[in-house]
Amino acid sequence: MQIPVAIRLADKNDAATIAAISRKTFYDTFAGQNTPENMQQFMTEQFTEPALMAEVGAEGNIFLVAFMEGEMVGYARLREVPNPPELGDAPALELARIYALQETIGKGVGKALMQQCIDLCREKGKKILWLGVWEHNLRAIGFYTQWGFKQFGSHDFVLGSDVQTDWLMKKEI
Predict the structure, then answer these.
(1) What's the confidence (pLDDT) of residue 2?
(2) What pLDDT band is residue 89 in, cutting at 50, 70 and 90?
(3) What is the DSSP secondary-structure string of 98-129?
(4) Neighbour count for residue 112 (Cβ, 10 Å)
(5) Which superfamily, per CATH, for 5-172?
């Protein structure tokens, strides 16, 4: 039997746990494919606990948090930001992050978060949900493709001193 996943909007009280999940999930996902030096630089300069905590409650950010058996196991961060040029002025939201702890992958956390993101997009009258994903993160690309996202462009993402390519993907809502 699958454990149910509960989703709610986050508030400032969730910031420390969101930051901890962010750092753990990012490291677990990408450390094996990047140099220790680049990971260390990114984690200590850009992906710091204070910086991540400051995002929660900041203007233009919407955080959805996922719980299993009362424990936070993942979250999604949506942002109201200017669109990439390829999207023009279409009403859109960016899905900046959708993270689930490694031990919960395949247990419905990502699915529940994604459905809530899509529902929120509709509620806000948005027509497009878009995101950036590392071109080598095949598991994530597969997940997004299953949800109907299609690549529409790319942009650079700097991890430490390594300039990487993120695919831009979108879903029509």
Answers:
(1) 80
(2) very high
(3) EEE-GGGTTTTHHHHHHHHHHHHHHHTT-SEE
(4) 21
(5) Gcn5-related N-acetyltransferase (GNAT) (3.40.630.30)
C-alpha separations of 167 from 25, 28, 44, 73, 157 in Å: 20, 21, 25, 26, 10
Q: Are 10 and 63 in contact (CB under 8 A)?
A: yes
Domain ranges of the chain: 5-172
Reply yes or no on whether the pLDDT at 1 is more than 80.
no
Q: Look at residues 17, 126, 140, 148 and name the one whose alpha carbon lies nearest to residue 78.
A: 126
What mean pLDDT is predicted for residues 24-43? 95
Q: How many angstroms separate the CA atoms of 20 and 24, rounded? A: 6
For 121-132, how does the pLDDT look when each residue is reduced to its tens digit (9 = 90+)? 999 999 999 999
The label of the residue with tokens 């979108």 reads 170
Confirm whether pTM is higher than 0.70. Answer: yes
For residue 3, the model assigns a pLDDT of 87
Q: Which helix (H) or strand (E) holds 28?
A: helix 15-30
User: Counting Cβ atoms within 10 Å, is residue 12 exposed (0-12), middle (13-18) or buried (19+)?
Assistant: exposed
The C-alpha atoms of residue 61 and residue 58 are separated, in whole angstroms, by 6
